[in-house]
Amino acid sequence: MTLSDIRTALREIRLSPVKTLGQNFLHDQNLARWIVVQAQITPDDYVVEIGPGLGALTRFILEKGAHVLAIEKDARLADFLRARLGHERLEVMNIDALKFDPRSLFAQRTVKLLGNLPYNISSALLLKFLEQPNPISLWLLMLQKEVAARLSASPSTRDYGALTLRVQLHHRVKYLRTVPATVFFPRPEVDSAVVQILPRDPLELPQRDDQSLLRLIRAGFSQRRKQLRKLVREHINDWDTVTRRLKIAANARAEELSLLQWIALANSIAPLPPPDTYLTKNER
Question: Using one digit for the tens of pLDDT, what is the confidence trace for 68-124?
Fold first, then answer.
């Protein structure tokens, strides 16, 4: 939709954009088309779109032949989508995305998720969809630039933190491009970015206890400026011996450890139990 189209539509449905709902409408059609192209959508896909707004992405997704489930919290926008984009392959659900159960998507064959996530709930919404069981094969999301940088960060960078590791534990994140605030109406105060998220192969990383690992990570990042040894004392008694064996600097800070090093550190203090050999013999 063009900027003129957006202004006209908002007047028609008597909607003044609400900042707390993240109602910033994309008016760059070339960017909208580019985002949909990155998702490599086919007619076999079932696409979940969060926060479709006035349908900037929705119509391009429908042109690819996919079935679209559009989740829109604002009833006026949901009604607008049904009226203007009414299509047999479009289902509009007027609910808060935080209340949607992604497990319901297991009934579909190939699921992809696209969306321009509201800034104020982007982290909570993202973690809900990433951490609950779901069949989503690709996420393509527009997020606040700062959040996108944190999700895709590498060790020893300012943006690398507990959220980075929590997401990258089960997914690969790629920062695709920065999106200037000028392509939205009304214009937000900060820039956005598009990220691609893909699920990891379950066998890609070493075995570990995720809950123990995440507890250790939270402790390690609780005070970024401090050395790790001071923050994880209650978890690791002989820090020097453990770090020497794992080839981690004794004075390391949390942001200096890679995901693999965090897993090795967690496994060193809470080793996984050996496989049940009796059961294994019976399975052969």
Answer: 999 999 999 999 999 999 899 999 999 999 999 999 999 998 999 999 988 888 888
Q: How far apart are CA 76 and CA 134, in angstroms?
A: 29
Name the pLDDT band for 281 (thresholds 50, 70, 90). very low
Could you give the count of Cα atoms lying within 13 Å of 201 in the half-sphere of its Cβ? 4
Angle 3-12/75-84 helices, nearest 10 degrees?
110
For residue 139, what are the β-bridge partners? 113, 197
pLDDT at res. 121: 86
With beta carbons less than 8 A apart as the criterion, state whether 137 and 110 touch.
Answer: yes
Q: Give me the residue label for tokens 């695709």.
A: 176
Residue 70 forms beta bridges with which residues?
A: 49, 92
Q: Which domains does the chain have, with CATH numbers?
A: 3-199 (3.40.50.150), 210-269 (1.10.8.100)
DSSP string for 53-81 = TTTTTHHHHHHTT-EEEEE-S-HHHHHHH
The type of residue at 222 is S
Is the peptide bond between 199 and the residue preceding it cis, with omega within 30 degrees of 0? no
Q: Return d(Cα 182, Cα 242) in angstroms, integer.
A: 50
Nearest Cα residue to 94 out of 112, 126, 72, 77: 72
Residue 265 near residue 246, CB atoms below 8 Å:
yes
Rounded distance, CA 110 to CA 44, Å?
7
- 247, 261, 173, 248: which is closest to 216 by C-alpha? 261
